[in-house]
Amino acid sequence: MAAPESDGIRPWADLPVEMVDAIVQQLDLFSTTRLASVCTSWSTAVATNAALPFGTPCLLMTGEEEDDNGARGDDHEDWSYQLMNLTTERGDSFPALIRDVQEQWWVGGKDDWLAVVDRYGGARLLNPYTGRQIDLPRTPAAVGPGVTNTGLGFDRIVVCATPSDDEGYLVIGMVNDYLLAIARGRDDGWTELRNPDGHPAGGYKDAVVHKGKVFAVDKSGSIYAWDLQGGACPEPEKLEPPHIDRGEFEHEGWKLAESADRRRLLLVWTYGKMVNCRRFKVYGCFDYLEFVAEGARLCERDVDAAAGLSDGDAGWSPVSSLGDHSLFLGANYPFFARVGNQGTSDSDSVWGMVRPNCICFAKGHLFQSQDVDVEVFDLDAEEYQYNPYKLILSNSRHYSSYQEPIWFRPTLKNYDLE
């Protein structure tokens, strides 16, 4: 440790690591990142703190401090959420303070950025570390018959490329399930992607960008592609889906992703059954049908090599293992992450544990009323398709505060803080 300065005041950089750790225990995770930007020694102390989940997939979600009526106690601009690390035995939780998100809801995210909307038609990209916000164009005008043109018309905003220094970004807006539109940095508005002829309303379930094209999957599992490199919006190309033996199961939750090396397109789907459910309200109850997932499958396709295949040969191959990685899907842009091989004790089995070789789903549509927010399907488990791990059970649907859980990997960088 350096000697004290002549005036008897020790420089902040000379604080012992133990004292920095004590400060970290009083901070939320995003503030800890700001603490690390103060000086090299503090950054080292934060980076070497094994308790912090930097680089680990966590669920960013509503905090647990709601009162009995579901109302948040916060009446200021900084709202507290939580990051839950489900790779540990007990599901460690860390507070996460995000600035300027009152009456806004996240509907997408990638890397260090979230896509948020408000009830008045506003949409923007938000960096929870720095507080920086970038306004997106307002909701496309043609949102369909009988649909109000507000920000909540966005079911999702797929963040494909995050902002750079010149505010460059690429996002896909999914509006009420049947309209796709893209926006890039400095665009004045959204560019709507043409629907294929005869495409039914309410069809799109997910979208990604792969090899310069937008790929979208609809509720039947059919996939469409739009080439972004030609300038004007082209007619979509249809890709034949893989043959799926539906048997006794129904299919829902179609998702798209890229392989870890970005060379192949992945199609992921859950399967299960529609079951009768009953929901109780203040003035009675009602019955409804709800899809209950029992398993997940995925397959891959090299879209370049399969371009010349006939309709009868779709070029898809099943994927049976992800190795020591897991795939994280939901409102976030899909990503692979290597996770530790954590054991599970009986007392912790309720958490399900995110382990290697899992498909991890977080429900990614705003204000949908599923009781199960997050499910994990372990590809290594014997007959895993009958035993998905249901991690987060939530009955809270208070629009003023509730946020759908989204996968988020906290990082440690030297941010230019505002």
From TrEMBL:
Q: Which domain of life is it from?
A: Eukaryota
All copies of the F-box domain together span: 12-47
User: Start and end of every KIB1-4 beta-propeller domain?
Assistant: 100-378
- Output this protein's name: F-box domain-containing protein
Recorded source organism is Setaria italica
- This protein's gene is called LOC101772586
